[in-house]
Amino acid sequence: MNMMLAPRSLPSYLDQSAAVRARFARLKAREVILRVEHLSKAFTTRKGSTLALNDISFETHRREFLCVVGPSGCGKSTLVRILAGLEEHSDGDVLLQGKPVTAPGSDRGMVFQGYTLFPWLTVKKNVMFGLEVNGKGKHEAETQALQWLQLVGLAKFAESYPHQLSGGMKQRVAIVRALANQPRILLMDEPFGALDAQTRARMQAHLLEIWRQIDITIVFITHDLDEAIFLADRILVLSAHPGEVQELIEVPVPHPRSSAQFITPEFLSTKARLEELIHKGTAHGEEEDADTYHMVARLTDVADSVD
Ligand SMILES: Nc1ncnc2c1ncn2[C@@H]1O[C@H](COP(=O)(O)OP(=O)(O)OP(=O)(O)O)[C@@H](O)[C@H]1O
Ligand SMILES: [Mg+2]
């Protein structure tokens, strides 16, 4: 018998070591920071109404790191924009520390994929901006901005302008700028999506380090399953359009996290489960893609085709 071909048996992603189980028990004993109940969102367009999110319910606890994954178009960005108060929802409730979210507020920080720094302000002034808007005096804002920049190793770039920084450095500034106002919750929508693989890995480790040091709850949207497992306490898996909750997975990979864990049985079994759920959720989308490619093939069916 060829042993190489024998299927590798993995433990179930539901199996948790005693330490991981104890950690989840502590996490769930903490106060609920964000509660989403039966949330639905329909967009009305000229063509009619599209249901983007359907009956979404979940909660996150204080200092929890929640990742949200799901196929493209399942409503992840819509969800995070609703949490941010940038988009109205159609039905259900979004409660931040018990209070309904109706508009943006300083209790929520946001980091999205595009660099959202002000290009005409120095790095330090970018971080100071929100602090001053929220009533801090110039001197205090400056002192705090420098402390935050120190935390992410960018103090020596305080007087630089955003265009003088690399993509990873810009996102580090964006993260501390969001954190400087001491929000209860940090909302991140594919924040590392535009970075190269190595920078992205460094940013993930950086973010975990920041998260470990401060009292912040994070909701992090990604379509990268490795990223979700590496970062999250729990992963909310949404199904394809309209987005519905498929499962809320407790990641069985122990803390502290390191890149060496990417090949552990806990990591691989969680990834296998996520792939199973996402694949199930995209079966319909793939049919559409096949049509699209078929059409592209027709459009490119030119005389000098090399096929
Ligand atoms: N302003 C809008 N008006 C109408 N429909 C919208 C609007 N914004 C989003 N939608 C629709 O809602 C659905 C969810 O979009 P959303 O951008 O939230 O998905 P997503 O999961 O973030 O996708 P991706 O992974 O590609 O970023 C899509 O069908 C989209 O077309
Ligand atoms: Mg999106």
For the biggest sheet, the summary is: 6 strands, mixed
- The Cα radius of gyration reads 21 Å
Spatially, the strands of the biggest sheet line up as 6-7-8-3-9-10
| Mean pLDDT metric | 90
Gross geometry:
globular
Identify the bound ligands. Answer: adenosine-5'-triphosphate, magnesium ion
Which regions contain 5 or more consecutive residues with pLDDT less than 50?
none
The helix count comes to 8
| Strand proportion | 15-25%
Q: List how many beta strands DSSP finds.
A: 10
Assembly level: single chain
N to C succession of SSEs? HEEEHEEEHHHEHEHEEH
Helix share bin: 25-40%
Helix/strand/pairing category? alpha/beta
Distance between the termini: 40 Å
Account of the 3D structure:
The chain is globular. Helix 3 packs parallel to helix 5 (167-180), helix 5 packs parallel to helix 6 (197-213) and helix 7 packs antiparallel against helix 8. The mean pLDDT is 90. Strand 7 (185-189), helix 6 and strand 8 form a beta-alpha-beta unit. The chain has 307 residues and is α/β, with parallel strands linked by helices. 36% of the residues are buried. The protein has helices at 18-29, 76-84, 123-133, 138-151, 167-180, 197-213, 225-231, 265-299, and strands spanning 32-45, 48-61, 65-69, 91-96, 99-100, 108-112, 185-189, 217-221, 234-238, 245-250. Magnesium ion (MG) is lined by residues 76-77.
